[in-house]
Design goal:
Elements (H helix, E strand, L loop, with lengths): L6 H11 L5 E2 L8 E2 L1 H10 L9 H6 L2 E2 L10 E5 L7 E9 L2 E4 L8 E4 L8 E4 L1
Parallel strand pairs: 1-2
Antiparallel strand pairs: 3-8, 4-5, 4-8, 5-6, 6-7
Length: about 130
């Protein structure tokens, strides 16, 4: 188990950062447009880790992490209830309470506080 983010995960995180400004388009995973799970899928594909193109399924491929143990590259999830079946959004944690995500139609991939909207209610490490 790592106490810090492994170099390979930092590579995936750097890939995500290079996508800032690219448009959100539903059901896309790059190279020019992304939806939320498409961005995390494409980032982790850079290190040969296959994630499904569905935010709810991405949670179940990793291990849960408590919010106080988050490290760069971990995934943040939003659901409408305490059930993981309600997950509808995913973002990548960058550290310092910041995240990168593809928010919605009309907005580009961006870096924002993980609390800019509502707090995430699920956390995972792929």
């Amino acid at each position: 188990d790592w106490d810090v983010t492994p170099p390979s995960v930092l590579h995936a995180t750097l890939f995500a950062l290079r996508q800032v400004g690219k448009a959100y388009v539903y059901a896309t995973a790059g190279p020019d447009t992304f939806d939320c799970s498409g961005l995390t899928k494409a980032a982790y594909a850079q290190i040969r880790l296959g994630l499904p193109h569905f935010s709810g399924a991405q949670l179940h491929l990793g291990v849960p992490v408590p919010p106080e143990a988050l490290r760069p590259g971990d995934l943040l999830f939003w659901g409408s209830s305490s059930s993981s079946s309600s997950i509808h959004h995913v973002a990548m944690y960058l550290g310092g309470g910041m995240m990168i995500h593809a928010p919605r139609t009309g907005q580009a991939v961006q870096i924002v506080s993980m609390y800019y909207w509502i707090p995430p209610n699920f956390f995972g490490r792929p």
